[in-house]
Structure to design on (990 residues):
């Protein structure tokens, strides 16, 4: 036996046993504190590979390789002189001699020993547990073995319906085996959720096609003559035929090494440590991560507390102050696609506490809040929709500003107060691009006297990245100004003191058909007689277009003054791309298209050299058209029977469809026909923001109707109508507005809904945000459009009827109007010359914009001109 | 909308930097819709964005959007900000004062301006 430098030399030695997630974090903490320079660091790693991300283990089955999961950069180890011994676990520790002996026989002397040996999966002592086909779920090697075995398996069973068990079950299902879950407790995830939450989970998981056996234990693993698993006997007397079994019945701390060398361990395992993570037995030995028993008597099975312990131990070794006395067990997970979150005192263990519960097991929703006697939010459980987790967790320990029930009710179901950004704590991050907190934004208003969103943007950088936080930013700035007693201007822009809704009412009531008249009569004093601005011109243009037939304006958006108001894209009836070229999107109603039309699109794209792509909206986009090519392209499209797809407009975009009853074995109605009917009915309808829709042929929802502004799902008796759905950056599941409608009832209700939205929404407000904002929410909308509580349904229907009757394709009109066509040129004085900076380069057999050409800028002569060649 | 009666034979002209009285004729005035722009190509290859406001005033600035490099400013929406005319880039919406070329949203950026008249 060779002894590796006993009585450590000039540099004291730290030996780390276990290179898991917490071990690796500990090494990083050592490096951050400069301890790798002053110490020799030796790591004994049992697994055949260095530390990897165990939390993401299951993502191996969705394509992540073991290399992707690795947490260890070889350069990190080399740079810090860390000696890592892979595949060589520690066998024994001699605390008197202060040495560790590895399996290879090597002996390492230490000044400080750190145990980070993690846990092992607990396998209940049932007969047959070691048979061929029994697995645990902890390491990459376990996964590789399961994957290999599952190739020849038809059925698999997971023992344990906790967090990891569900994860393992999801993985098995993903491997294509029929999956069973056996859980001893009466519900799934017994640690995290209560009975109600368990019921919601059960429902959702069964809907996914898994078979769940709760309240029953595994009694025996049955094997065949070849020693391979063939089934399981359960304690309720039943049997399950299965080819493979994964045990996921909890974990136990790996404390054998510590026990063997006389370190104190807890009754139920775990190396007992003090608040500095030093073992209570020996000041030279530390224990961190899942093998440690903290001072609060707990062994933490989550990675965040382990990381805190790693930091604490490293700080202590560096003689800095740090301590770990316990951690928050709040978790938010996505298991088998179900959101599950629990936070604070989730099970309501505090004295006299009360529950507020909302549950809809049909929809797989369960939300519970635990409230103290004085109204303090103590904790909670969310299953199926954990959207509010961030806010609720931040509010734990305080009395929420609104009633608890309104925090758990789904949006619209009588929830009076959706908790807006004003309820967030000051340290909540509002802009994730620039990491700006709510407190910083409030400070910009109070301390730096910013009074507008642009000023706050400049001051804090919030909202200057992707822009997705600007809406919340606006709400916060308004709330802060109001709180400071500043009167907040709710006007549309610098030109109008009215909101969009007020302007709509003025235009409709007084039949005002031009922007100039509206500005000169109703604009702010200083704005009258002027040119308006880029905010109100398109907003008013949209109002005029929505009401055109009713107020006697032209329904053609390029007619007269209307042409000058349109947003730049609407003005050219195409979408501007980054190099100044345009994209062309013909309407393909319902996504249904004939081979002949497909060929026409292909020929046009080929002839004009356009980049083609199938869009997310079930149609085809052609990119790279120069402005002077647009009329030529459209002449051919119109000739082949295509119409504008309004991809450029705040208007109806697509009504997606699934194939439905005609072909699909599950379909209960003709969803394609309905999608086409709806798309043709509402095409060209200008609205405050774009409108999207979809129709699914059955509850399986292949058309994703519940993510649309108005979505339709077929039922055996007709159609269900959902409203207010949204994809994009802030997805929102649509709310059910009405059920089992006939074709005529469906169309009538959508007519009313859309016209009511167009009437009352703000500029650039999708139906989802509108539904959340308007007083009364979904209930109010239902009263107005279903029950006609305001008596306006007749008018709403008439407005839509007028739109439908007057619809004309704007591209067909444009190509037949020489005066309008003259606008489609790159240069007014050189109509045949293309814009020289619109260039393309090849990529994957198509084109893409030549961006360097833009960076070079204009012709050399340009550069002598002041200011123009700055970038 | 009622527009003032137009004299259709008026031409829009730009002053070139080649000489004090070197005016380049771009197009007929009616080609400029009040509130919208057009692009023009100069003999040396430069691109200019021309605008006409509601009061009939004409403006000319460089057509190149300095933020993206694309020659698109002529296609932006125009408006009045504190009494002065501006255009908002159609790409990322930064506003430029039409008389001075100054960017209203980033004081470090400006575009060239040109003299323009009708004749
Ligand atoms: C082409 C397409 C991507 C693709 O290659 O598939 C696309 C491209 C654009 N999307 Fe989109 N979106 C496309 C489907 C979607 C979808 C999916 C869908 O419709 O099913 C979504 C999420 C669904 C939704 O809207 O709820 C989507 C959410 C957005 C958003 C975020 C909207 C929101 O409310 O959060 C924007 C930004 C906006 O509108 O303010 C956006 C904006 C844009 C713009 C218009 C950005 C712009 O101003 O230049 C892109 C220009 C398209 C062009 O030049 O032709 N696009 N976009 C898809 C066109 C579908 C079509 O046939 O019309
Ligand atoms: C599938 C799965 C999903 C999970 N999901 C989450 C989650 O969503 N959120 C969360 O917070 N936590 C999750 N966890 C738990 C999380 O992975 C652990 O809390 C974390 O890995 C603990 O880190 P550790 O370093 O203490 O232990 P480990 O990561 O287990 O590392 C211990 C290492 O020590 C080695 N070792 C043991 N004995 C010796 C020895 N004698 N000599 C040398 N080496 C030895 C082991 O082989 C192992 O590599 C999940 C775990 C699994 C398995
Ligand atoms: S939604 Fe239903 S009917 Fe439509 S394709 Fe999917 S399974 Fe078939
Ligand atoms: S999140 Fe604020 S700009 Fe992207």
């Amino acid at each position: 036996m060779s002894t590796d430098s006993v009585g450590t030399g000039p540099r004291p030695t730290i030996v780390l046993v276990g290179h898991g997630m917490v071990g690796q974090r500990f090494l990083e903490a050592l490096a951050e504190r400069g301890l790798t320079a002053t110490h020799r660091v030796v790591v004994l790693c049992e697994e055949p590979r260095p530390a990897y991300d165990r939390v993401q283990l299951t993502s191996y089955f969705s394509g992540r390789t073991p290399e992707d999961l690795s947490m260890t950069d070889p350069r990190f180890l080399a740079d810090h002189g860390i000696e890592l011994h892979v595949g060589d676990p520690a066998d024994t520790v001699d605390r008197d001699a202060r040495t560790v002996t590895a399996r290879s026989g090597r002996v390492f002397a230490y000044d400080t020993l750190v145990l980070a040996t993690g846990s092992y999966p607990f396998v209940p002592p049932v007969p047959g547990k070691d048979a061929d086909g029994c697995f645990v779920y902890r390491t990459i090697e376990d996964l590789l073995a399961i994957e290999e075995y599952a190739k020849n398996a038809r059925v698999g069973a997971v023992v344990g319906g906790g967090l990891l068990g569900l994860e393992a079950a999801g993985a098995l299902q993903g491997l294509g085996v029929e999956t069973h879950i056996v859980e001893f407790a009466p519900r799934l995830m017994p640690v995290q959720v209560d009975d109600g939450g368990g019921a919601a989970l059960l429902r959702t998981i069964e809907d996914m096609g898994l078979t769940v056996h709760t309240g029953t234990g595994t009694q025996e693993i049955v094997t065949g003559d070849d020693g391979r698993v063939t089934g399981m006997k359960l304690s309720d007397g039943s049997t399950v035929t299965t080819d493979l079994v994964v045990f996921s019945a909890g974990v136990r701390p790996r404390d054998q090494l510590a026990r063997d060398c006389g370190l104190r361990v807890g009754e139920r395992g775990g190396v007992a440590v003090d608040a500095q993570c030093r073992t209570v037995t020996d000041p030279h030995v530390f224990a961190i991560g899942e093998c440690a028993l903290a001072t609060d008597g707990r062994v933490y099975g989550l990675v965040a507390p382990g990381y805190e312990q790693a930091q604490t131990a490293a700080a202590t070794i560096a003689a800095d102050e740090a301590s770990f006395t316990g951690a928050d067990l709040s978790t938010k997970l996505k298991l088998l696609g179900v959101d599950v979150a629990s936070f604070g005192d989730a099970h309501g263990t505090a004295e006299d506490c009360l529950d507020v519960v909302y549950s809809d097991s049909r929809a797989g929703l369960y939300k519970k809040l635990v409230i103290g006697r004085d109204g303090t939010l103590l904790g909670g459980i969310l299953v199926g929709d954990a959207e509010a987790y961030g806010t609720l967790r931040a509010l734990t320990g305080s009395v929420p500003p609104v009633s608890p029930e309104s925090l758990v009710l789904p949006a619209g179901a009588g929830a009076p107060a959706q908790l807006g950004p004003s309820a967030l704590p000051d340290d909540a991050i509002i802009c994730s691009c620039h990491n700006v907190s709510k407190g910083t934004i409030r400070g910009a208003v109070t301390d730096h006297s910013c009074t507008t969103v642009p000023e706050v943007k400049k001051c804090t950088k919030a909202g200057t990245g992707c822009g997705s936080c600007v809406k919340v930013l606006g709400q916060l700035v308004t709330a802060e100004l109001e709180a400071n007693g500043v009167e907040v201007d709710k006007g549309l822009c610098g030109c109008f003191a009215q909101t969009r809704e007020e302007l709509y009412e003025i235009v409709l009531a007084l039949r005002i058909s031009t922007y100039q008249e509206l500005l000169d009569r109703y604009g702010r004093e200083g704005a009258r007689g002027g040119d308006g601005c880029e905010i109100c011109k398109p907003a008013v243009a949209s109002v005029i277009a929505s009401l055109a037939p009713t107020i006697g304006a032209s329904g053609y958006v390029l007619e007269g003054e209307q042409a000058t108001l349109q947003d730049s894209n609407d003005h050219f009836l195409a979408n501007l791309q980054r190099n100044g070229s345009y994209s062309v999107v013909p309407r393909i109603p319902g996504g249904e298209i004939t081979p002949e039309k497909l060929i026409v699109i292909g020929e046009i794209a080929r002839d004009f050299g356009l980049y083609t792509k199938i869009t997310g909206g079930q149609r085809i986009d052609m990119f790279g058209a120069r402005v002077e090519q647009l009329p030529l392209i459209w002449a051919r499209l119109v000739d082949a029977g295509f119409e504008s797809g309004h991809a450029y407009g705040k208007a109806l975009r697509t009504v997606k469809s699934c194939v439905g009853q005609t072909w699909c074995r599950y379909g209960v109605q003709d969803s394609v026909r309905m999608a086409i009917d709806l798309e043709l009915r509402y095409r060209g309808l200008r609205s405050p923001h774009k409108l999207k829709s979809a129709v699914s042929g059955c509850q399986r929802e292949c058309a994703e109707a519940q993510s649309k502004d108005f979505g339709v799902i077929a039922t055996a008796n007709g159609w269900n109508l959902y409203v207010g759905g949204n994809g994009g950056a802030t997805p929102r599941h649509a709310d059910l507005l009405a059920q089992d409608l006939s074709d005529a009832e469906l169309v009538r209700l959508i007519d009313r809904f859309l016209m009511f939205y167009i009437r009352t929404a703000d500029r650039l407000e999708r139906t989802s945000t509108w539904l959340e904002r308007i007083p009364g929410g979904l209930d109010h909308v239902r009263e107005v459009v279903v029950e006609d509580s305001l008596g306006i349904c007749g008018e709403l229907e008439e407005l839509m009827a007028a739109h439908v009757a007057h619809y004309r394709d704007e591209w067909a009109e444009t190509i037949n109007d020489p005066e309008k066509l003259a606008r489609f040129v790159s240069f007014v004085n050189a109509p045949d010359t293309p814009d020289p900076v619109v260039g393309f380069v090849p990529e994957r057999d198509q084109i893409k914009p030549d961006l360097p050409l833009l960076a070079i800028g204009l012709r050399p002569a340009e550069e002598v001109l002041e200011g123009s060649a700055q970038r | 909308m009622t527009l003032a009666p137009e004299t259709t034979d008026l031409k829009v002209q730009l002053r070139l930097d080649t000489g004090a009285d070197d005016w380049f004729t771009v197009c007929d005035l009616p080609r400029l819709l009040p509130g919208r722009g057009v692009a023009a190509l100069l003999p040396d290859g430069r691109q200019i964005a021309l605008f006409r406001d509601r009061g009939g005033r004409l403006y000319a600035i460089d057509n190149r959007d300095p933020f993206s490099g694309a020659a698109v400013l002529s296609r932006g929406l125009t408006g009045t900000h504190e009494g002065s005319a501006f255009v908002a880039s159609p790409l990322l919406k930064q506003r430029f004062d039409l008389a001075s070329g100054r960017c209203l949203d980033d004081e470090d950026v400006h575009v060239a301006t040109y003299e323009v008249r009708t004749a």
